């Protein structure tokens, strides 16, 4: 599979030719000014929660591409009422999609839509692909014992974890989370976008290396094979 980073927590995974976009927030991110939002294609969009820095470009991309979305029931109802084609799920639920299984797992974080509408609870996703890869998209979680359940239920190839601190885990908590979910290959997200989230890249990677983890900090627009 291929993974492209569009900044903040927005990734595009291409799995067996199916394009899966996570938490589309690009046009409002000053670091992603060189990304052409109108060139991003998606077949499915996964929304971890309703905050503007995770759904900011959802409506425009979903309208243009016709992508189907997956979100917690409250967010699915909100966008469904606007005419978007969605699947509502909830914590613990598994959804079968053409590229594999999406297991909705707990994320310790708040959630509301940009207009203040209640957004249910935040989620993360464990994706078990038909290609044979299993990975975890954490969303905006804090460090919580619920993460230990992931290791008990899944064998991860890699994990996408927030490391920017302030609103989510910082690198130290993320490395504990990596142990708890059973991942040694990590991709950082939710960092550098705004002043409170700016991190020292070298220090974060050194801390990860000391903990026996391989932390990748992708460039915006970079695509990697996983």
TrEMBL record:
Residues spanning the signal sequence: none
Positions of the Metallo-beta-lactamase domain: 7-190
Keyword annotations from UniProtKB, A to Z: Hydrolase
Pfam families in alphabetical order: Lactamase_B_2
GO molecular function, one term: hydrolase activity
SUPFAM superfamilies: Metallo-hydrolase/oxidoreductase
The keyword Acetylation belongs to this UniProt entry's keyword annotation: no
Annotated NCBIfam families: PRK00685.1
Family, similarity comment: Belongs to the UPF0173 family.
Protein name, entry field: UPF0173 metal-dependent hydrolase HHL22_20145
Species of provenance: Hymenobacter polaris
């Amino acid at each position: 599979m291929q993974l492209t980073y569009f900044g903040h927590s927005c990734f595009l995974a291409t799995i067996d030719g199916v394009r899966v976009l996570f938490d589309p927030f690009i046009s409002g991110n000053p670091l992603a000014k060189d990304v052409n939002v109108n060139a991003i294609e998606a077949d499915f969009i996964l929304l971890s929660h309703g905050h503007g820095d995770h759904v900011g470009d959802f409506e425009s991309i979903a309208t243009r591409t016709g992508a189907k979305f997956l979100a917690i029931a409250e967010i699915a109802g909100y966008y469904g009422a606007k005419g978007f084609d969605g699947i509502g799920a909830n914590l613990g639920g598994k959804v079968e999609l053409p590229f594999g299984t999406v297991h909705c797992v707990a994320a310790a974080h708040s959630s509301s839509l940009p207009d203040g509408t209640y957004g249910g609870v935040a989620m993360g996703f464990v994706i078990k692909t038909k290609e044979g890869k299993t990975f975890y998209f954490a969303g905006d979680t804090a460090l919580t014992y619920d993460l230990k359940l992931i290791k008990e239920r899944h064998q991860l190839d890699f994990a996408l974890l927030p490391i920017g601190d302030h609103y989510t885990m910082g690198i130290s908590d993320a490395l504990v989370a990596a142990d708890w979910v059973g991942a040694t290959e990590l991709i950082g997200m939710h960092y550098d976008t705004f002043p409170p989230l700016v991190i020292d890249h070298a220090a974060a990677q050194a801390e990860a290396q000391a903990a026996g983890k391989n932390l990748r900090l992708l460039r915006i627009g970079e695509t990697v094979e996983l």
